[in-house]
Records
---
Amino acid sequence: MALGPAQPDYLNGALRLQTTLPPSALLSLQLEIERVAGRVRVERWGPRTLDLDLLFIAGQTVDQPGLVVPHRELTRRAFALLPLLDVMPEACDPASGRPYSELAAELDRTGVRELENSRAGWLERGLE
């Protein structure tokens, strides 16, 4: 479910990766990927070709201008938390220590639906 002005439905997913980049450099890379994909930021939460967010870093928190990790709204947004749990089911909220899976069970999932066999397809191809 998109935040902001009305826009077409879109897919939301998560990627788990290991990198030596510091969080600020990873964010810069994400913004460059969005730009190359044709994203032009005109209005906050406006229609987009691609939206990459740095939501969570295992064992680390970041609070600096332009970057807060975990994302401040992560525990309130099923459309972000559920894909995170697909790739990192053991993730816990660093502030409370509660598993994100418990927090996700409490969320309103209106407008969020899982694609049939989406995760199973990744697992079959060894891409977990």
---
Amino acid sequence: MPRKAKEPEEDLNALGEFIRSQRELANLSLRRLAELAEISNPYLSQIERGMYKPSGQVLKAVADALQVSAETMYSRAGLWDETSAATSNTVEDAIRLDKDLTKSQKTALLEVYRGFVGNQR
């Protein structure tokens, strides 16, 4: 049976939830993420609440600030084919997106991985 297409509001809410969960996983405040992405705090808040669909440029800035691949962020925003994004995910993306891991498990795995590759924050 074909999958029912999501409504635009559902896409925006899902994108906002994804950004919020990645921000929390990175232990960043809304204000700090906005600073890192060089966007306004209120605008980021509205994105996280699903009120606005950000441009590709804003998504890239948020992805860079969160250390998530741009392809993953574009995929979540419906701007990138998920099958293409799945082939280009990083190890960190795989950890972040794993639904079987708890937030604390993801944090621990990210710290261990970054310790091995020398990519500490």
